[in-house]
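Suppose you are handed a protein chain with no further information: no name, no annotation, nothing but its sequence. What can you learn? This example shows the usual starting point.
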Amino acid sequence: MLNRRHLAFAALLAVVAALLPEGAAAGGELGDVVENLELKTLDGRKVAIASKKAQANVVVFFRTGQEFSADALKAMAECEKEFAAKPVNWVGVVSDTEPPDVVKQVIAEAGVKMPILVDAGDAFYGRMEIRLHPYTVILDRDRRVTVREPFHKIGYCDRIKAQVRFVLKEITAEDVAKLENPEKGTFRVPGGVARRHLNYGRLLLDQKKWEKAIEQAEKALTDGPLAPAYTLKGNALVGLGKCAEALAAFDAALKLDPAEVAAKEGRRACGK
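A reasonable first move is to predict its three-dimensional structure. Written in structure tokens, the prediction is:
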């Protein structure tokens, strides 16, 4: 039976865990339940990450200096309108290192209505293991991480809308796959088998199973040269600390599709 000393020690461990730096503890992987933290907004109020009344909670991580954050916020403004009458809660999260005036200007230009929460010391970024920006995470009514979606220059709102509808149980996982609009252009779009390998590989990437993610990327590439597959491989190599090989993969992705946002972000992760 636990005595008071044991209970006090357990409480101390919990406090220490909460203060661990980014990457020290997991908390944002698919299936994880996220603590419903309250963060200050730009105007000094306190707002929780998730709403108890919502069936889907959409959390948008962004940085004002990041190239595509404005585009992501504009897409989210469109999505907000679509779900205005449904049990969907929206919040944006920005680092406390961002100048408040700049943040206010960016969100005003984007037209989003969601509260913008200020992440002191990037603590929540760390817990959720957000390495790329912009990035959207969707929690279900139990605050379980259901979707992790990096930014896509084409059709981002459509992707998020499909995922929200899935969390609301309006459509199935199969419907989500059908509703995802393939990016159009001169590059090849993954076929059905390759797409399954890519989706599974991204799931493994979120779980930090780097080698297995690379295996799925290689399997997708057996269908032919695909920008998303090279990007997946590059991000897994970054996770393994192999930036030289990762840069080669990102370059291959950008050669096939110069608009591959995730590959550009991957290069930045390697300092390029």
